[in-house]
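Sequence design from tokenized structure. All designs in this work follow the same two-part layout: the structure record, then the generated sequence. An example of the structure record is given first.
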């Protein structure tokens, strides 16, 4: 769904990442402006109280609710690589899906999608066996769930092999390598902090199906959903500007389940 044929795009955000007395993000302000929420499931962030509140807010605003499973690494926020087996990956994802699903059921809503978090997302983007274990866990839990992954990644390839519905994700506030992967956060220029630059990148990828990599090379991307990080300092500005601009461009901003 790129170029002139694109009619629909989802606007998603990673949310529910507070933990106990530690508050992260602006969930209350961001939720009304997005169409899908990736809710932390207690491994890399969040806790039962935060999960319940986040699901309730998302349900009240009628947006798609997705699980955001990560590595069991609260101190590292799930951004540190871990060496785990495919059996462990399957179990970790299943465990976290079950936790979020309990709160979805309590709120009378159905889980829409699954988006792996942080290091798990990035590792599975390049490791087919890990990606396959994640996709099999999602499919076995609920085959109607949509797997949200980076365009051209092993996650997308594995979802196709497993028979799982999938959506291709674009990061408005992250720089891209020439191979379509995200620039590591440890590298200079990995984060896009200027909301106007982020906005133009989004419009370009939606209208033309390409993005300029960190080296200056144009790379093709087929995308269905745009992610803005809820813990970013300009998250609220990103979300509002991007949503308004896409609608001005004639694009329908809608939750994944309405068009995937």
């Amino acid at each position: 769904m790129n170029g002139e044929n694109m009619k629909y795009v989802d606007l998603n955000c990673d949310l529910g990442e507070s933990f106990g007395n530690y508050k992260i993000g602006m969930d209350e302000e961001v939720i009304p402006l997005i169409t899908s929420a990736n809710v932390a499931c207690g491994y890399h962030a969040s806790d039962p109280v935060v999960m319940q509140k986040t699901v309730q807010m998302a349900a009240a605003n009628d947006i798609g609710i997705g699980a955001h499973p990560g590595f069991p690494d609260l101190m590292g926020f799930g951004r540190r690589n871990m060496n785990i087996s495919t059996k462990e990956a399957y179990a970790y994802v299943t465990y976290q899906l079950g936790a979020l699903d309990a709160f979805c059921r309590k709120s009378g809503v159905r889980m829409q999608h699954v988006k792996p978090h942080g290091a798990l997302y990035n590792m599975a983007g390049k490791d087919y066996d890990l990606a396959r274990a994640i996709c099999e866990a999602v499919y076995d839990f609920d085959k109607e769930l949509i797997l949200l992954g980076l365009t051209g990644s092993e996650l997308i390839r594995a979802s196709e092999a497993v028979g799982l519905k999938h959506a291709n994700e674009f990061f408005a506030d992250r720089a891209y390598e020439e191979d379509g992967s995200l620039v590591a956060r440890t590298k200079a220029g990995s984060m896009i902090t200027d909301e106007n630059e982020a906005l133009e990148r989004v419009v370009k990828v939606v209208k033309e199906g390409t993005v300029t990599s960190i080296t200056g090379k144009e790379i093709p991307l087929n995308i269905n959903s745009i992610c803005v990080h809820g813990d970013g300092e300009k998250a609220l500005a990103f979300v509002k500007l991007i949503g308004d601009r896409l609608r001005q461009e004639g694009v329908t901003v809608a939750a994944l389940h309405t068009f995937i």
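Strands lie at 8-15, 36-40, 64-68, 113-114, 146-150, 165-171, 210-212, 218-220, 225-229, 252-253. We note this feature because it recurs in several other targets discussed in the main text.
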